[in-house]
Every structure is written in structure tokens, then in C-alpha cells.
Write the C-alpha cells for this entry.
Amino acid sequence: MTILDTARKIMHEGPICDHCLGRQFAKLSTGLSNDQRGQALRITLAMQASAGKDDALQEELAKSTQNKCWVCNNLFNHLDSWAEKAVSGLSDYEYDNFLVGTKVTGLLAENEEIIWAESGTTFAEPLKTELNREVGKRIEKITGKKANLKKPQIVALLDLENDTVELEINSLYIYGRYRKLVRGIPQTRWPCRECGGKGCERCDNTGKMYQESVDELIKPHLMEAARSEDTAFHGAGREDIDALMLGDGRPFVVEAKKPHVRKIDLGALASEINSKAEDKIEVLGLKFVESETVEQLKSMKADKVYRLKIVHATTEEKLKSSIDILSGTIIKQKTPTRVLHRRADLERMRKVHSIDLESFETDTAVLVVNCEGGLYVKELVSGDGGRTVPSVAFLTGSEAKVIELEVLKVG
């Protein structure tokens, strides 16, 4: 069957617009829009009907333009209206690029299936693909912004059923490093164990185990700068609540959800966060990143350097001997008893690269531990009742315990 035979078969089904006729052959030829394809086919068929005195074809051609298109219900007559609706919705948001999507009605989806089945065409593209493209071209012309098929900042979703445009606002991602300068602050909000975050007497009706977190000290300032609905905090691991995070800080990405503003002065944002944090935290090196950075952050296997102040009941010689043995050793650790209530009971193998004795006193000492990420350093000292082997306590034959912990380097 020739292209013209297929086109005539399509027109025999009922009145059809140039867009819907041409769309059945969208994969043929380049540099043409579907309505141009449809118009060319219609003109060619009209010439063929005239040359062959084909009255039946001439009648079909006449009917096909006199009534509403049975495939799209004349949807393509309203492209400008859809574009204006989308632009109106987009006007409250700052964006560099966008994408148009479409939620088709059940009737339009059914009509499309019928025309494909009846015509047997293998060159068609979906109605919503053409609608997205044509409305997108008009938005580009009005706004000067460019459509982005792969990673749009904002999606205008044409809801044909309800005659509305829904907006899907993609998040804004900011990478940085944070230093935690006081103890007793978790990285993220920690719901109360008693009430699960609902509020009770134990948490003073706040729903939180701790009243502040690194996340919450950053959140309000980013929400205000980006005019976002919410934020999400993604850290490269986390330190214990009672630990400091020093050195050049721990990498993190903070995600601003549904931001109205994207062009943020990150230097000013960092200054605002740091000045209002009252020396509890400090953020450094803020920069815009893509969403993939979150996954890279979560999967990074960074080495860590810790400073540990320990209490002990051993001699300096025994302590030095034990840390010499531990340096370069693979440590076997079961999940510490202190976190078993929230983590699976697994056995891990982690390497200690080196341990240096920074200072020694009769009952206290300071160690600097350079180790593989994921090692529980508190248990490296205490042994956790034999769940971590070897350990300082095991090798010295006496009790040992971390009383202060500082993270000096991550990665």
C-alpha cells in the first residue's frame, strides 16, 4: 500500500485535521511539521482526484475539512491558548529551561489507537509528542527560554481532561561542607523515640529528640533565599551527636524543593547561615550541582581521620604497643550494641591505616586515628564486649573508652 493509499484510508475514517493526518507519517522526511505533511498529502490527493475525476475522493476531501477532527477534537486549534496558560503558570518561577508534558484524556488515547489500527501506519508519532513540541515552541518564543528534554528545571504538564496546566518544579541542589563546632547536635532532625515526632512530655511537645540539627540550622535560610516549599539534607555519612566535625568539614548536598528562585548568591547564603548559627556550625564552599551528586555523595567511600580522647587504665608503653599493632590492621566489627536498635546486626571488615599517640596522661590519652570509612572508632577503643576485634582494650588487657571525639577529615 502506498503512502497516498494509506492517507486516503485514514481520511475515510472521518473528518481529520492536517496535524492528525500528517502525524501518521511523522517519521517520513525531515524539516516539515506534521500540519505541513498533512496539508501536502491533502493537496496531492486533491490533485489526484481531479486528474482521475474521482468524485468519491473529492467528496471525502471536502468532508474532511468541514467538521471537527474526530482524532483530536480540534485540539491543535488551541496551541496558543495552551502556551499562554503555561507561561502564566511559569511566571512566578525563575528558570532557565523547561519541558512540556501532556496528560491525554481516555477518549483521545482511544482515538489514537483506532487510527493506528485502521490505517496500519508504521510512521506515526503519539499525539502528545506533537502537542508537547508545538506548545513548547510557542513557550520558547514568548519567554526566550529553551526546552530541555533531558534535565528540565520545570515541567509544564498540560492536563487535557481538566483544561489546566500543572507545574512540576525540579529541585535545586547545593553542595558544600559543614563544620560542627559544638557537641550534642545531630546532622538531621531526630524524631522523638517516645512519640515518633507527634509531640509528648518527654520532648516538650516538639516531636524532636534534639532541638537543633545541622540540617535545621541551614534550612530556614535556604528556604527564604530560594522561596522553596521545603529542603532535604544529604550528608556523606554522619558523625556521632557528641562528636565535633572539624578540619575542612563534611561534604553535604542540601536540596531546595520546588524553588521559586534559582539564582542565589551562595556567598551571601553561607554568610547568613554562619552568622545566625552562633558558632554552632559553619558551612563552606557552597556551589550549585546536579541531582546525581546526591547519589555520588551517598556512595562515596571516604577515609576518615579522628581525634579521640580516651580514658584508660594502662601504661604508656602498653598503649603505644597496642596502637602499633592496630596500625595497618583489618578490624572485624559487629554492629555496635549502642546502635543495634536502629541498624542491622552485621559484621564489617574495616582497615586502620595508622594511629598516632598525640598525648598521654595517667588516666587519659589522645589518639589520632586514620582509617577506612565505616569503622566505628569508639568500639575500636572499647572493644564493645568482644564485638570489635582487635581493640585497644583487648590489646592492653584493660578497660578503655572514648570520652571525646572529633572528626578531623572526611575524604
Observations:
- The mean pLDDT is 93.
- The domain at 304-410 is CATH 3.30.70.3190 (Alpha-Beta Plaits).
- Residues 34-51 form the longest helix (18 residues).
- The first strand starts at residue 97 and ends at 103.
